[in-house]
Amino acid sequence: MKVKLFGMLKTMVPGGKDLEVVLSEGGRVRDLVHSIQIEHPQVGELLDKKKVLVSVNQEIAHWETMLVESDEIALLPPFAGGAR
Amino acid sequence: MAVEIDEGMLVRVQQENFSIDQELERVRARSTRIGGIAMFLGTARDHSKGHDVSSMTFEHYEGMAQKKLKEIRERALQDFDIIEALVLHRYGPIEIGENIVLIIIGAEHRADAFKACQWCIDELKKITPIWKMEYTPQGDVWVEEHP
């Protein structure tokens, strides 16, 4: 399945393109994160520290969220924020 | 008296600049009950975290960014005693001094307008998938600070 990347994450993967991750049926977000940790350890570390969130169908997902092939998945680095 | 308006115009993520007068009028025209309007305008600074900034680019997650801004407007209308809320954010390249983000709140009274306006911009910074790259003499930097 395709995983969209934004912001600084694009600078951390070769070519800065979206990721293609193969998950077995019944896979969850934690399995996706595990695959990314193996292929792209730099991105994986940020996911592990919860500095990067995973969204599924444009909602923030939890590690137990189940995934299906048609889901729209994205990795969201910290938002632009801005000091108050 | 409430006036019919296009709600889609009250929540926008767009590349082009916006006219503050036009947006203000959009909120003002919503109801003659409005007696106070509070506004927050975020603009592009030439300095950030001790370094000069020559320009910046905003990237957004198409669809999710709009969805989050819509949620913010709806929650503001529900949780505060206000009449209308407008939330706009730009994306793409933005030069120093240009407009970036606009919140306009129309209420019967100023206290509610101020409170809702502050809440909207704080919430926007927290939950909206928008990222900023700053161009500095030291290189290009993705900004990841939080309120």
Record keyword descriptors for this entry.
heterodimer, A: 84 residues, alpha+beta, Ubiquitin-like (UB roll), 5-stranded mixed β-sheet, 23% helix, 19% strand, globular, B: 147 residues, Aldehyde Oxidoreductase, domain 3, 4-stranded mixed β-sheet, 4-stranded antiparallel β-sheet, 3 helices, 37% strand
Walk me through what this model shows.
- The complex is a heterodimer of chains A (84) and B (147).
- Chain A is α+β, with helices and mostly antiparallel strands and 84 residues long.
- Helices cover 23% and strands 19% of the residues of chain A.
- Chain A has 2 helices and 5 strands, in the order ββααβββ.
- Chain A has helices at 29-39, 41-48, and strands spanning 2-5, 19-20, 53-56, 59-60, 73-76.
- In chain A, strand 3 and strand 4 form a beta hairpin.
- In chain A, helix 1 (29-39) crosses helix 2.
- Chain A is globular.
- The N and C termini of chain A lie far apart (38 Å).
- With 147 residues, chain B is an alpha+beta fold.
- Chain B has a domain at 9-43 and 62-126: Molybdopterin biosynthesis MoaE subunit (Aldehyde Oxidoreductase, domain 3), CATH 3.90.1170.
- Helices cover 29% and strands 37% of the residues of chain B.
- Chain B contains 3 helices and 10 strands; from the N terminus they run E-H-E-E-E-E-H-E-E-E-H-E-E.
- In chain B, helix 2 packs antiparallel against helix 3.
- The mean pLDDT of chain B is 94.
- The chains are: A alpha+beta (84), B alpha+beta (147).
Q: Figure out the total of helices of chain A.
A: 2
Q: Counting H and I runs of at least 4 residues, what is the number of helices of chain B?
A: 3
* Global mean pLDDT of chain B: 94
The CATH superfamily of chain A is known as Beta-grasp domain
Strand order, main sheet of chain A: write it out: 2-1-5-3-4
CA-to-CA gap between the ends of chain A?
38 Å
Stretches of chain A where pLDDT is under 50 for at least 5 consecutive residues are none
How many separate domains of chain A? 1
Unreliable spans of chain B: none
Gap from first CA to last CA of chain B: 37 Å
- Strand segment count of chain B: 10
Percent helix range of chain A: 10-25%
Rg calculated over all Cα atoms of chain B: 16 Å
CATH fold-level label of the domain at 9-43 and 62-126 in chain B: Aldehyde Oxidoreductase, domain 3
CATH architecture call of chain A = Roll
Number of strands of chain A: 5
SS-derived structural category of chain B: alpha+beta
